[in-house]
Design brief:
About 35% of the residues lie in helices and about 25% in strands. The protein is α/β, with parallel strands linked by helices. The relative contact order is 0.20. Keywords: Acyltransferase, Cytoplasm, Fatty acid biosynthesis, Fatty acid metabolism, Lipid biosynthesis, Lipid metabolism, Transferase.
């Protein structure tokens, strides 16, 4: 069995300046603020401006992590960027981010795994370091979802937000990233999708509407509250711990109702486990959600570096991934 050497050393974050409250969205959607809050648990979210891109937000979050860890960009061996909203198929956004940071020609690639992309990246980073393939890796989640949602679609528009989070993963004596549990259920792929497809738009550009993100919210809720507690138990087992050992739970910040439902099934309804709820103020930021949630927990003092954490994320595919690790410092 490969010896564990990799740990999350630092988290950097980037949150756009523009705050969009429920009172801003409600009139456009033909609902009231309470309607949004009851269904999502979200009170506000951040929307990026025209000057803020997937690439610029990723670079800013990564630079914060590097600066706080006193690590040079030239020490980075690999840059992974998890995103679903870099709309150019090529080149990969990660390579551009690496160049903007001043990295010295690292391996750089994007991860397309929906909301679970960041957790997939952490698993890949740990495997590379444990195998001796790399020493320092940046795993970044960056999303500009405000540009891929229909502002008139009340089942989607209130949920998503923009932002970026970056993890510096490196060798450490303690606080190792444990074995990753990941998988997918392609039979449920239609639940979160782009519609129409780019192929449909290309075939009939004058009559096809703009491709937007669509989601079957009720079915996603049922899948998540049913499958995620089982996946969390598998992550704990793979990490060599019990659910009772978990001090901090960082679930995907999809919807507060899903988070509450999963926590209830796991028996985490008291204050024995700190549960991330950054979704309240950030919305669902997809691949950026986990690092942003860690930043919120640690910077607010609700959780402390070194505590034993379990993170899990799920999204389009349907894909999922998660692992046990020790909470890092945040920039």
């Amino acid at each position: 069995m490969t010896a564990l050497q990799a740990g999350v050393l630092m988290i950097g974050s980037y949150r756009p300046d523009r705050i969009v409250s429920n009172s801003d969205l409600a009139p456009e959607l033909g609902v009231d603020e309470e309607w949004i809050l009851t269904r999502t648990g979200i009170t506000e979210r951040r929307f990026a401006g025209n000057h803020e891109t997937v690439i610029s937000m990723a670079a800013s979050a990564a630079q914060k992590a590097l600066d706080a860890a006193a690590t040079s960009a030239r020490q980075i061996d690999v840059v992974m960027l998890a995103t679903s909203t870099h709309l150019n198929q090529t080149p990969a956004a990660a390579a551009i981010v690496a160049a903007e940071l001043g990295c010295a020609g690292p391996a750089a690639f994007d991860i397309s795994a929906g909301c679970s992309g960041y957790a997939h990246g952490i698993g890949q980073a740990a495997a590379l370091i444990n195998a001796g393939q790399a020493d320092n890796i940046l795993v970044i989640g960056s999303e500009k979802l405000s540009h891929v949602i229909d502002p008139d679609n009340r089942s989607v528009a209130p949920i998503f937000g923009d932002g970026a989070g970056a993890a510096l993963v490196g060798r450490t004596e303690s606080g190792h990233i444990r074995r990753t549990v990941w998988g997918s259920d392609g039979t449920q792929a239609r639940l979160i999708r782009q519609e129409p497809t780019w192929e449909e738009l290309r075939a009939a550009p004058t009559t096809t509407t703009t491709p937007f993100l669509h989601m079957e919210g009720t079915e996603v809720f049922r899948w998540a509250t049913g499958a995620v507690p089982r996946i969390v138990s598998e992550i704990a087992d793979a990490g060599g711990i019990t659910l009772a050992d978990v001090e901090v739970f960082i679930p995907h910040q999809a919807n507060l109702r899903i988070i509450d439902g999963v926590a209830r099934k796991l028996g985490w309804q008291d204050e024995s486990v700190v549960i991330a709820d950054d979704v309240r103020r950030a919305g669902n930021t997809s691949a950026a959600a986990l690092p942003l949630a860690i930043d919120d927990l640690v910077s607010s003092g609700r959780a402390k570096p070194g505590q034993l954490a379990l993170q899990v994320s799920f999204g389009a595919g349907l894909s999922y991934a998660g692992q046990v690790f020790d909470l890092p410092q945040v920039a």
